[in-house]
């Protein structure tokens, strides 16, 4: 496997995993129009784990605080109480995503396998992002989401099974529609990505154990690039959300969508 190709794929994975432009949509379109696909499923898993590590390190203080609040479960401190509520809402959203994902993943994958579908979904992603920039937030914090809105955000993450629908873009936008503050909408989305990324790949993890030792260096380089690029864009996206600049990602999605649709129907 060429080192440059491995590093390129790692960078693209890290960027598109967290920027609201749909990693799955870009993968489908790149495979078709650029004839540039990942070597195998184990390589994709390793890249996702690199992205996961980026979230874990970037939000390490938040994660440590949430875990600590579980350990000191009898604590009546207000911060610990708020953390436990946040964990509950993350759990509810994750369960909704997992149940719908397991139930409909194969059906949706087959039903939307046509090449023009990712392009249309990118058009939809751009529209959602554009509208979310114009939403006046109610300023809710993570622990104030409530069960109903947790379910709605979980549903929105499940919809991101469709190639072209951005997981981060959809969950952040729906969080804003539900009244979350801009910073907490982004924060909740990223924390929600941890079980989503891990759960989506854990059942395929055995494939990594079957790798030849000679492949480990290439895989490590790819995962490192995914980690570095992913870590770099998390802060960028949070800044764009806070400054109501998601519309720029909307423009990008629309342009890519229109170009690929023209190529498809020409």
Written as H for each helix and E for each strand, in order along the chain, the element string is HHHHHHHHHHHH
Helix- and strand-based class?
A: mainly alpha
What is the terminal-to-terminal distance? 34 Å
What oligomeric state do these chains adopt? single chain
Outline: globular
Name the poorly predicted regions. none
Radius of gyration: 18 Å
Q: How many discrete domains? A: 1
Task: Describe the protein in words.
The chain has 266 residues and is mainly α. It has one domain (3-265). Helix content is 76%, strand content 0%. The protein has 12 helices and no strands.
Concise summary:
This protein is mostly helical and 266 residues long. 76% of the residues lie in helices and 0% in strands.
How do the strands and helices of this protein lay out in sequence?
Elements: H1 3-18, H2 23-33, H3 41-58, H4 60-71, H5 78-111, H6 116-132, H7 147-159, H8 167-177, H9 182-202, H10 206-209, H11 216-242, H12 247-265
Helix pairs in contact: 1-3, 1-11, 2-6, 3-9, 3-11, 4-5, 5-7, 5-9, 6-8, 6-12, 7-8, 8-9, 9-11
């Amino acid at each position: 496997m060429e080192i440059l190709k491995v590093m390129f794929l790692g960078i693209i994975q890290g960027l598109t995993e967290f920027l609201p432009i749909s990693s799955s949509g870009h993968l489908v379109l790149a495979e078709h129009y650029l004839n540039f696909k990942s070597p195998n499923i184990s390589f994709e898993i390793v890249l996702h784990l690199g992205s996961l590590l980026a979230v874990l390190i970037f939000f390490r203080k938040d994660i440590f605080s949430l875990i600590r609040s579980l350990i000191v479960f009898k604590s009546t401190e207000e911060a610990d109480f708020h953390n436990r509520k946040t964990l509950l809402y993350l759990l509810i959203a994750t369960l909704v995503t997992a149940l719908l994902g397991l139930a409909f993943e194969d059906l949706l994958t087959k039903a939307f396998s046509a090449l023009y579908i990712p392009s249309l979904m990118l058009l939809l992603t751009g529209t959602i992002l554009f509208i979310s920039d114009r939403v006046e937030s109610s300023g809710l914090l993570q622990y104030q989401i409530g069960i109903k809105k947790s379910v709605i955000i979980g549903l929105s993450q499940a919809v991101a099974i469709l190639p072209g629908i951005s997981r981060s873009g959809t969950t952040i936008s729906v969080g804003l529609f539900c009244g979350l503050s801009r910073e907490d909408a982004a924060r909740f989305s990223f924390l929600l990505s941890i079980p989503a990324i891990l759960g989506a790949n854990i059942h395929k993890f055995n494939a990594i154990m079957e790798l030849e030792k000679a492949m480990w260096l290439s895989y490590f380089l790819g995962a490192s690039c995914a980690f570095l690029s992913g870590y770099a864009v998390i802060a960028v996206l949070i800044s764009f959300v806070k400054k109501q600049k998601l519309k720029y990602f909307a423009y990008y999605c629309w342009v890519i969508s229109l170009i690929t649709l023209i190529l498809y129907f020409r």
